[in-house]
Amino acid sequence: MNNDPDPAAWSRAYMALGWPVALGHRRRPRQGCTCGDPRCEQPGAHPVDGGPEYLTPEQMTQALQTSPGGSLIVGTRQFDAVTVERYAGMYVMVHLELSRHVPCLLTHETATFLVHPGTGSSARVHPAVDLKTGPDAWVALPPSYGTYWDNPPWDERSATPRDLVHGEQIGSLLEGLRGYLDDTRRVGAVR
Ligand SMILES: [Zn+2]
Fold first, then answer.
1. How far is CA 159 from CA 1, 10, 14, 99, 106, in A?
2. In what order do the strands lie in the sheet with 138-141?
3. Measured in angstroms, how far is the CA atom of residue 71 from the centroid of ligand 1?
4. Is residue 22 a contact partner of residue 47, using CB atoms and an 8 Å limit?
5. What is the largest CA-CA distance in the chain?
6. Tally of structural domains, the chain
7. 186 and 136 in contact (C-beta within 8 Å)?
8. How far is the CA of 139 from the centre of ligand 1 (A)?
9. Torsion-angle region of residue 146: left (phi > 0), alpha (psi -120 to 50) or beta?
10. What does the pLDDT look like over 26-76, one tens digit per residue?
11. Cβ distance 40 to 91 under 8 Å?
12. Does 40 fall in a domain?
């Protein structure tokens, strides 16, 4: 289902992991983001005004009928989200993947690792590392515009949820990239 553009199946899968899921803005072909801001920095990948309103599966089904194709906004309650510039993220993936499958989300510019909740600060070893943590933070997940899974948060054959690693495991690899990270500008929100 990794290339499925239908948010209904994805929202069900995220909710099955116990994650709070909200419906956000969406990007319309040639018309931009439904937030109406022509300079929107995260077209089709951010919550509606007032912040994410997390829905039950029934509410989501209903909301998708009136607003098909909306982005999926997930609160960082069951994981911390650690975002780095994409090349730095690829380095981490190559060195981690030998032993574990760590959920990793990509955009054109960034890589985001989902780690055990409350441990992401151990990965924040440099100002170029962005951290989303706690009940009020959120990330836009696939099929939101411009986002896709490198590693989804479940085993693709058995659908078994993946164990999350401690942020320290990401942090220790990023330590080796300090020089590189010095040269990258700080990445902002996940997009
Ligand atoms: Zn927007």
1. 11, 12, 11, 19, 20
2. 21-23, 72-75, 138-141
3. 10
4. yes
5. 49
6. 1
7. no
8. 14
9. left
10. 999 899 999 999 999 999 999 999 889 999 999 999 999 988 788 999 999
11. no
12. yes
**Has residue 2 been placed in a domain?**
no
The rounded Å distance from CA 39 to ligand 1 centre is 8
Domain containing residue 57 = 7-183
| φ, ψ for residue 112, nearest 5 deg | -125, 125
Ligand 1 center from residue 101 Cα (angstroms): 32
Q: How far, CA to CA in Å, does 50 sit from each of 15, 90, 135, 159?
A: 22, 34, 15, 33
From ligand 1's centre to the CA of 27, what distance in Å? 8
CA 162 to ligand 1 center in whole angstroms: 31
User: What is d(CA 155, CA 152) in angstroms, rounded to the nearest whole number?
Assistant: 7
Residues 156-178: tens digit of each pLDDT: 888 899 989 999 999 999 999 99
Residue 124: inside a domain: yes
Domain contains 50: yes
Å from CA of 25 to ligand 1 middle: 6
pLDDT at 18: 96
pLDDT for 88-99, tens place per residue?
Answer: 999 999 998 665
